[in-house]
């Protein structure tokens, strides 16, 4: 898993190509957002003022940024949903994996990816995931000696949740908030993560049911045609 760093130039490029709605057009209260393109739904705190598809420089990453508030090019409040966010073969099963494997994975998140917090949590009653918070201070190491030479202070901290859906997709949901210390924002975000649903699986079931219905109708019609032909033959 990788951290997301927003470069000013990238934000300018994204936001200048995205039309932001006026605040007066926003709907107050929870809003159920459905992505037909990526086939998922999630409960948002309010209706997004903008949806940015694939807000990364890496073309192999896929998902959307749901923007709820901004000041110019500065994103104040948003969720970033990444589909196929991690390799399921390289990441332990958060529900059935060994505690040792999961523990080693959490330690690696802190050591390699610069997370200050990385904990196993309940996403829903039957599904676990990883809740992680980026560090507010990052040690600057000397490449030759490996010793700490200074400290880099992050302008913002970000919250991530990684989990697998019951259908097997590997999901990352990131919270961007200027009010990260406000418990209400964290609780709302966690409720949103818990509400995440795959819609593609349901659509596939509908498609299969539709195809089955068509096949049944065709079989009935063929049987009827054969019976009619047989009856005509017998009359002769």
Could you characterize the architecture of this molecule?
The chain is of the alpha+beta class. Helices cover 31% and strands 33% of the residues. The protein is built from four helices and twelve strands. The protein has helices at 8-16, 99-113, 183-195, 200-235, and strands at 31-35, 40-44, 50-53, 62-71, 74-83, 115-124, 127-134, 137-141, 148-153, 159-164, 170-177, 197-198. The strands form three sheets. It has a seven-stranded antiparallel sheet, sandwiched between helices. The longest helix has 36 residues, at 200-235. The termini are far apart.
- Binned strand content: 25-35%
The strands making up the biggest β-sheet line up spatially as 3-4-5-11-10-7-6
End-to-end CA span: 76 Å
Number of strands: 12
- Backbone CA Rg: 24 Å
**Mean of residue pLDDT values:** 79
Low-confidence stretches: 1-25, 202-210
Element order, helices and strands? Answer: HEEEEEHEEEEEEHEH
Give the structural class: alpha+beta
Number of helices: 4
Report on the biggest sheet.
7 strands, antiparallel
Helix content: 25-40%
Question: How would you classify the quaternary structure?
Answer: single chain
Net shape = globular
Task: Describe this protein with a few key phrases.
single chain, 236 residues, alpha+beta, 7-stranded antiparallel beta sheet, 4 helices, 31% helix, globular, disordered N terminus
Structure at a glance:
The chain is α+β, with helices and mostly antiparallel strands and 236 residues long. It has helices at 8-16, 99-113, 183-195, 200-235; strands spanning 31-35, 40-44, 50-53, 62-71, 74-83, 115-124, 127-134, 137-141, 148-153, 159-164, 170-177, 197-198.
């Amino acid at each position: 898993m990788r951290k997301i760093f927003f470069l000013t130039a990238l934000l300018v490029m994204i936001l200048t190509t995205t039309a932001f709605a006026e605040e007066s057009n926003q709907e107050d209260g929870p809003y159920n957002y459905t992505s037909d393109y990526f086939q998922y739904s999630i409960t948002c705190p309010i209706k997004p003022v903008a949806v940015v598809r694939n807000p990364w420089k890496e073309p192999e990453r896929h998902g959307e940024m749901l923007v709820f508030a901004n000041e110019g090019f500065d994103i104040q409040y948003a969720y970033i949903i990444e589909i196929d966010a991690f390799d399921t073969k390289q990441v332990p099963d958060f529900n059935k994996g060994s505690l040792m494997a999961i523990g080693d994975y959490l330690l690696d998140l802190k050591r390699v990816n610069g997370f200050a917090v990385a904990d196993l949590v309940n996403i829903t009653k039957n599904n676990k995931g990883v809740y992680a918070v980026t560090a507010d201070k990052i040690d600057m190491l000397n490449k030759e000696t490996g010793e700490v030479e200074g400290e880099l202070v992050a302008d913002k901290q970000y919250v991530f949740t990684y989990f697998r859906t019951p259908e097997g997709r590997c999901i990352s949901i990131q919270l961007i908030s200027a009010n990260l210390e406000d418990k209400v924002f964290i609780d709302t975000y966690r409720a949103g993560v818990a509400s995440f649903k795959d819609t593609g699986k349901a659509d596939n079931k509908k498609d299969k049911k539709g195809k089955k219905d068509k096949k049944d109708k065709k079989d009935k019609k063929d049987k009827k045609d054969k019976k009619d032909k047989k009856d005509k033959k017998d009359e002769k």
